[in-house]
Specification:
The structure holds two protein chains of two kinds. By secondary structure, chain A is mostly helical. Chain A is built from 15 helices and two strands. Chain B has 22 helices and seven strands. The chains are: A mainly alpha, B mainly alpha.
């Protein structure tokens, strides 16, 4: 049920794009993207500000390797950073290489019924392929927004089109993205435990990304949209005087609408992990909390059982057992 | 207790489908998988909310009338205080990498023990009351009303998490289920939903200074008893020092070390070694607990119990603090103590008076782990060790959750073990160091009534021990945690009979050649040195 209903948002967005295309193309062509950019920027700012508004009261680093203690014991610097530099390195490993996910294992049962663990890199490969190809696709799109096209972007595009399969050339990143997205969605449906824990949005969001990709692929490889017209349109958006591309069909408006919706939903959905991961207190702090004191801005006042009260309460026994006392004459402290 | 279960029975996992329960779905609390409620006497003593007679299997939990407002206000308050909570509520993508990392999920098969789903129990309430999409779209986006059924389910599942943080190691965003569980338990405790195995030790500790409620005279008796045993075994007499002003170092150990078996042999090890190197140290009967069951209750109670260490160090005028073998104690000492009860300006940067080594890694907190201290002694050749006295042991090491994942104390105990035993074999790498599995009884759930869940949750650890037992004939499981020492023996007896449990410093005490000692015929347990340990085979 969740799986089928998760197709609905993308379908509704496509219908909206279609209606807009027929009635007033300026709405999907300009209103949606402008609104989306605004929501994305304000929303992301709000989301990050909301996180930052709460302090980090304690150093709760998760240490994933040997601490720095005695000089002759080999210290795992990026798994258990001792200073800010290595904490940044650790975070880079996490963001660029998905370090933690790389540790993934799969538990199974041996014939005697006890658990055993095998290497399981599927999720890591799928996640790396998905995120990096998505980045490549996004960077490629920059050529629509920048004139002249920077050499880096042109080189990236050339590399992406390395094999020159068909005309226009088939992008490797498109293939990788399709494969990774397919794998991630299929995995969610195929594994029972994952199916049980998945929510509507866990399907709806990848479906939305898939719809963006699908309309993009249709535009490039099938509709063969006029690239120059699109570029003029993109630059007109940047100049805040939108001029719709002549001859663009409904698929184009669907692509714009879907990508607008995706951008707008980022700050309000789990996709906000892209920003949130940088703030994760178990990963972005050095584990050196005994070397350098971490301060808690709201350090809560509490009642404690003070030594004097303790000595008073156990005075007779303390005397009998021969303890040295603060108040040895038997009086109260 | 364990006799009523069979291995075959506990190897069968639940097939019950999980998923997020509906807000009005009653989760069945299965006997053997939860602990009893806090005794109102102790709840009252600590001044905690809603002391009353009740049990989890009662129909009526006697929650205060405005329980829902209390929990939601507490939730809102904690979202403001903890960035971790806000973030962990928002950014999970439910990739499922954590799912099969939880020992309770592996052992029970109950899908709500998958860390992601455990967190969703709370996240769903967060969505309903603190996010726009949840308020508008409700169930569709996984938002749930907070109902009494939800409170029951939180009680059941957040006390089926031992805050071991294994799942967090694998999480691509570092989401820490321990943090979520800690705050869920705080919210439950706001309305008096608690368990006695946490409340009673905490009340004892607040009053007497230690979890077991050992009063000062008994504390002295126990230490003197231990010294008497050592004298009988070695011919060397040791005078215990307690509450002594002017000592250089304050030694704080988990109180179980003075009282429980096999903990006490570890205490012998400490006492012998510290005597041998002539360390100027004192115990304290006021700060007579290293552990901190407050950690399993709330940040506030953790702080209240922990405050004694610094207060006593200041009163006695010591230079720094040395801490014994205890798991969650070191979570508190390493990650909370300085922040909560520091800065401890009256302490110095710890320096070993024997080797001159300065423990810069403890410069601010002023507290050193005994394994760090001992490893340094051995490395500098300050201890004379005879490994042959541990010849009958084939040893493996259980990394305790907290020293591993909240500190990174991994090589120090191994260095000591390799220096004191001739036969050491690590378990498979997916089950040790930062990947280590919980004993199944951590975070205050080590009760008799919770035994089934403990045995199930302990299965991954036990299976790894079984592996090295079959391969290398391992018969001794060493650990550096008082809860481990209390619960692993039963776990071993059930899953891997023939494996005993010890502390690292017990093996050190066996191997330690003391100046002027009489010939040792027995180890610290009073067993002959050479006879095969596992006659049962």
């Amino acid at each position: 049920m969740k799986i089928f209903s998760s197709l609905a948002p993308a379908a509704v967005l496509c219908a909206a794009a279609w209606t807009g295309y027929l009635a007033a193309p300026i709405i999907p062509g300009a209103v949606f993207p402008f609104a989306a950019v605004l929501i994305f920027i304000l929303g992301t700012g709000w989301r990050i500000a909301r996180w930052l508004a709460s302090p980090v009261p304690f150093n709760i680093t998760v240490t994933a390797g040997q601490q720095k203690s005695l000089p002759w014991i080999s210290h795992r610097k990026t798994e258990n950073p001792d200073n800010a530099f290595y904490a940044v390195l650790r975070m880079m490993m996490e963001v660029l290489m998905f370090r933690s996910l790389f540790r993934n294992t799969m538990a199974g049962r041996k014939p005697d019924g006890t658990p055993a663990y095998g290497s399981s890199k599927g999720l890591w490969v799928g996640a790396m392929a998905f995120h990096w190809s998505l980045l490549a696709v996004a960077l490629r799109h920059l050529r629509f927004f920048i004139e002249p096209v920077p050499a880096v972007i042109a080189a990236l595009e050339a590399a992406d089109n390395l094999f020159h399969i068909g005309t226009p050339g088939l992008y490797l990143s498109d293939i990788v993205l399709a494969g990774a997205l397919g794998y991630l969605i299929a995995r969610r449906i195929a594994l029972r435990s994952l199916r049980d824990l998945s929510l509507f949005q866990d399907y709806a969001l990848p479906v939305l990304v898939a719809a963006v990709a699908l309309t993009g692929v249709l535009l490039r490889y099938f509709e063969r949209i006029d690239i120059l017209a699109v570029k003029e349109y993109a630059l007109s958006l940047l100049a805040l005087s939108p001029a719709l591309p002549a001859g663009a069909g409904v698929i184009f408006y669907m692509h714009i609408t879907l990508v607008s919706a995706l951008a707008a939903v980022i700050p309000f959905s789990k996709i906000s992990h892209a920003a949130g991961v940088f703030l994760s207190p178990t990963r972005n702090m050095p584990g050196s909390s005994r070397r350098r004191r971490h301060e808690n801005p709201w350090n809560a006042p509490v009642t404690v059982h003070r030594y004097g009260e303790w000595e008073d309460e156990f005075r007779d026994r303390l005397i009998k057992a021969g303890y040295p006392l603060e108040k040895s004459d038997g009086g109260k402290i | 207790m364990a006799e009523k279960y069979s291995q075959e029975e506990l190897l069968r996992r639940d097939s019950a489908a999980g998923g997020l329960p509906g807000p009005h779905e009653r989760v069945i609390l299965r006997r053997g998988r939860y602990s009893y409620s806090g005794n109102p006497k102790h709840v009252k003593y600590l001044g905690l909310p809603n002391p009353r007679e009740w049990q989890p299997h009662d129909e009526d939990w006697k929650l205060p009338e405005n329980w829902k407002e209390i929990i939601l206000a507490g939730f809102r308050d904690r979202l403001k205080k903890y960035r971790s909570l806000k973030l962990f509520m928002d950014i999970c993508v439910r990739c499922g990498a954590c799912a099969d990392k939880c020992h309770y999920y592996l052992g029970s098969g109950d899908e709500r023990n998958m860390p992601v789903l455990r967190a969703e129990l709370m996240r769903s309430v967060y969505r309903r009351y603190f996010t726009l999409s949840g308020r508008i779209l409700g169930r569709l986006v996984g938002a749930r009303d907070l109902t009494e059924e939800v409170v029951r389910e939180w009680f059941y599942y957040f006390y089926q998490c031992s805050e071991c943080r294994r799942c967090s190691v694998y999480c691509p965003y570092g989401i820490d289920t321990a943090e979520i569980t800690m705050i869920a338990r705080e919210l439950l405790n706001l309305v008096g939903v608690n368990i006695n195995w946490i409340i009673e030790p905490a009340a004892n500790c607040y009053r007497t200074g230690n979890h077991l409620g050992i009063q000062p005279h008994t504390f002295r008796d126990n230490l003197e008893f231990a010294c008497g045993e050592i004298s009988e075994m070695t011919g060397i007499s040791i005078e215990p020092s307690i509450n002594r002003k002017g000592a250089e170092i304050l030694l704080v150990v988990p109180s179980a070390d003075l009282f429980a078996d096999p903990h006490i042999y570890t205490l012998y090890g400490y006492l012998m070694m510290l005597h041998e190197i002539g360390l100027d140290y004192t115990f304290s009967a006021y700060a007579s607990e290293g552990g901190n069951f407050g950690l399993f209750h709330s940040h506030d109670l953790m702080k209240r119990l922990n405050a004694k260490m610094y207060a006593e160090a200041e009163r006695l005028g010591v230079k720094w603090i040395l801490g014994g073998e205890c798991g969650h104690m070191w979570r508190v000492v390493h990650q909370y103590m300085d922040t909560m009860n520091g800065p401890a300006g009256f302490l110095e940067t710890p320096k070993s008076p024997v080797t001159g080594t300065v423990f810069r890694n403890a410069a601010s907190t002023g507290m050193v782990h005994l394994c760090e201290f001992t490893a340094d002694l051995i490395y500098n050749g300050k201890l004379k060790l005879d490994r042959s006295r541990n010849a009958k042991y084939r040893v493996t090491h259980h990394d305790s959750c907290n020293p591993s994942r909240a500190m990174g104390l991994l090589e120090e105990p191994r260095y000591i073990l390799n220096s004191t035993c001739g036969s050491f074999h690590d378990m498979p790498e997916n089950t040790i160091r930062e990947h280590t599995f919980c004993c199944g009884s951590g975070s205050g759930v080590g009760t008799d009534e919770n035994l089934e869940m403990r045995l199930r949750g302990g299965l991954p650890r036990a299976a790894a021990v079984r592996y090295v037992r079959e391969r290398h004939g391992v018969n001794m499981l060493s650990c550096i945690c008082a809860i481990d020492k209390a619960t692993l023996p039963a776990l071993m007896q059930f899953w891997v009979p023939g494996v005993e449990v010890c502390g690292v410093h017990e093996l050190l005490g066996n191997a330690l050649v003391m100046e002027g000692e009489s010939e040792r015929k027995a180890n610290l347990r009073g067993e002959p040195l050479t006879e095969a340990a596992d006659e049962k085979e």
